UniProtKB/TrEMBL annotation:
Domain HTH araC/xylS-type positions: 437-535
Protein source organism: Paenibacillus agricola
Domain of life, source organism: Bacteria
Sequence positions bearing 4-aspartylphosphate: D54
Domain Response regulatory: 2-119
Name of the protein in question: Response regulator
Keyword Iron assigned: no
Assigned keywords, A-Z: DNA-binding, Phosphoprotein, Transcription, Transcription regulation
InterPro entries to which the protein is assigned, alphabetical: CheY-like_superfamily, Homeodomain-like_sf, HTH_AraC, Sig_transdc_resp-reg_receiver, Tscrpt_reg_AraC-type_HTH
PROSITE patterns associated with the record: HTH_ARAC_FAMILY_2 (PS01124), RESPONSE_REGULATORY (PS50110)
Pfam families tied to this protein: HTH_18, Response_reg
CDD domains the record matches: REC_YesN-like
Length: 538
């Protein structure tokens, strides 16, 4: 804190400086003035928190100084130190906000008590000022968010307008008698590269900047409101309630303003005129449709107005027609074949004059369905974790610096994604093959035991269906036939030993019943064990 001592007598100023425990009270700077006129200049310049003043001084006395302080610096805490025990002077001190009135000669205890009281009063008021200031800051931060959310709700629940109509009129100049409106959407999905890099670390700052720029054009005179649409993370809405015929020019002016302020461009979709507020849901749908049907290949115009009669359309190309070469290239594991297959798809796209968001969504849906079928074909019900990742045909929307669709970037992204898919697939299949060979080895070591598919599945923690399918794919024979064939091959070798009885051989290859073994052997080899032994003897 800072204090000022105002008295035309130097010894009085020195006495006050000696009697007050400045450091204890947190007062680090002490100013001095000989009269009220000099004090006015120092107080205006340095804003001291504690003010000591005499009443009788030349040029400007304490009475006039107190009046000036109340008018120009009421937050300062004033202590009057006077040689006159006069009721009118005391009354004037109280009337104009003085903390205390102390008579000369100065009593140290009385002075110190008065200074402590003044310091505490100033600190308390300062804390309240800071608290109030902080509340104002918080309210100013919350206020735009509040209105953004109120206005966002009208898109789904337009009937909520009546509850806040008067407040909206006061805040934005929105006429309660307004019958029609138009709605525009500023979409961030095709922003220019420079804008994306500039604000990639703070999307909130971009929204703040864009809404401020828009509202500069909209609020003087009141022609609309721009606000962040809280139901979508990448959109700003502009509610237009001025003259409908000038709406397109207004949006063009906003586009120019955005470019001038932040050197970036964004696409804007706009609805036709709709009844207000009941038509807001339809207006939003129209503005959204205008954006969905915009040509992503070229950016001659960034303001897109809904065309009456616009409907969803079939894609100009069918991705499925180009999918089989892509599937085979991924299955082959050949980077070159993948590149060629993607090139064929991109070559077909390059012949199109227009591509819009609906086209992209159709192709993404086709790819998602086909990819799911491929994975089922390759892995069945045991699909790896990476296969569940959400991967679309277009990945992130591949754009050039101007925000147009870049087929070259798309080709690069899609090729890289498919190569990664192929790599994952081959690695996983290699792991699967290893597991199947382990199962075959296990059978070879335990063929003489009573092993079943269930026992094998439990041992390897795999499903019976998965083992059956993968085993048949790898060895072109099912598991039970593989066990039986292995047992027969071992039995043929053992039958070459004349000293082993048929019953012994049956037990050695996993059959407890000699008759059943003989039956299986004859069915497999075409001869009974005894017949085979006879014809195989040297």
């Amino acid at each position: 804190m800072r204090a000022i001592i105002i008295d035309d007598e130097k010894h009085v100023r020195e006495a006050i400086k000696l009697l007050v425990p400045w450091k204890e009270l947190g007062i680090a700077d002490i100013l001095e003035a000989q009269d009220g006129q000099e004090a006015m200049h120092l107080i205006a310049l340095h804003r001291p928190q504690i003010i000591f003043t005499d009443m009788m001084m030349p040029l400007m006395d304490g009475l006039r100084l107190l009046e000036w302080l109340q008018a120009h610096y009421p937050s300062g805490k004033t202590i009057v130190i006077s040689g006159f025990d006069d009721f009118q002077l005391v009354r004037h001190t109280v009337q104009y906000g003085g903390i205390d009135y102390i008579l000369k000669p100065i009593d140290a205890d009385q002075l110190q008590a008065a200074v402590r009281k003044a310091a505490q009063a100033w600190q308390q008021e300062e804390d309240e000022r800071l608290h109030h200031q902080q509340r104002n800051i918080e309210l100013n931060q919350i206020r735009p968010v509040y209105w953004d959310k109120v206005l966002s709700n009208f898109i789904m629940e337009p009937h909520g307008f009546e509850a806040v109509a008067e407040a909206l009129s006061n805040e934005f100049g929105l006429d309660r008698q307004m019958k029609q409106c138009r709605l525009a959407i500023i979409s961030l999905d095709t922003m220019t590269g420079s804008l994306k890099r500039k604000f990639e670390a703070s999307l909130d700052l971009l929204f703040f900047s864009l809404t401020n720029i828009c509202n500069e054009f909209l609020q003087s005179p009141a022609r609309g409101i721009a606000y962040r649409y809280w139901n979508r993370e990448d959109e700003i809405l502009i509610l237009l309630y001025g003259e409908a015929s000038k709406a397109e020019q207004l949006l063009a002016d906003i586009q120019h303003g955005i470019w001038t302020a932040i050197r970036g461009s964004l696409d804007i979709g706009m609805s036709l005129a709709q009844p207000f507020p009941a038509g807001l849901p339809a207006a939003y749908k129209q503005a959204k449709t205008a954006l969905r049907h915009r040509n992503l290949l070229h950016k001659e115009n960034r303001v897109h107005v809904f065309q009456d009669g616009a409907v969803a359309h079939a894609p100009k190309l069918v991705f499925s027609d180009y999918a089989e070469p892509i599937r085979l290239s991924v299955r082959s594991g050949s980077t070159l074949q993948i590149q060629k297959a993607v090139e064929a798809w991109m070559h077909a796209l390059a012949k199109l004059d227009t591509i819009d968001i609906e086209d992209m969504e159709h192709w993404d849906h086709e790819y998602t369905v086909l990819r799911s079928r491929w994975l089922t074909e390759w892995f069945g019900d045991k699909q790896p974790d990476w296969s569940k990742e959400s991967v679309t045909l277009s990945l992130t929307l591949p754009l050039d610096e101007e925000g147009s669709l870049s087929l070259a970037s798309w080709q690069e992204q899609l090729t890289a994604s498919l190569i990664q898919l192929s790599t994952h697939m081959l690695e996983h299949q290699q792991q699967d093959n290893n597991a199947i060979f382990e199962i075959a080895k296990y059978i070879q070591n335990h063929y003489h035991q009573d092993i079943t598919l269930i026992e094998i599945a439990n041992h390897f923690y795999l499903s019976r269906e998965y083992i059956s399918r993968k085993f048949k794919q790898q060895f072109q024979i099912n598991v039970s036939d593989y066990i039986s064939q292995l047992r027969m091959d071992k039995a043929k070798l053992l039958l070459l030993n004349p000293h082993l009885r048929i019953a012994q051989i049956a037990g050695m290859v996993g059959y407890d019943d000699e008759k059943y073994f003989s039956k299986v052997f004859k069915k497999s080899i075409g001869l009974s064990p005894n017949e085979y032994r006879k014809v195989s003897q040297p």
